[in-house]
Design a protein that fits this description.
Layout: E1 2-7, H1 12-23, E2 28-34, E3 39-44, H2 48-57, E4 61-65
Length: 66
């Protein structure tokens, strides 16, 4: 499972927004967003730019994909 840091989440609506945005990135599955840790975890392969863009486009700040 890979992770990406997501800055700026404050509530479950934020979690739902990030989950939806990442679910629209082709190749990502099993997406789990942890509000307290500020992390999104997922399986699969997708370009790092696509992952970061999906998060940034909805108003959050993405960190490194690990």
């Amino acid at each position: 499972m890979k992770t990406v840091e997501v800055k700026g989440m404050h509530c479950q609506k934020c979690v739902a927004s990030v989950t939806k945005a990442l679910s629209e990135v082709p190749g990502l599955t099993n997406i789990v967003v942890d509000l307290e840790k500020g992390l999104a975890s997922f399986d699969g392969e997708a370009p790092t730019d696509a992952i970061k863009t999906a998060i940034d486009k909805i108003g959050f700040e993405s960190g490194a994909v690990k």
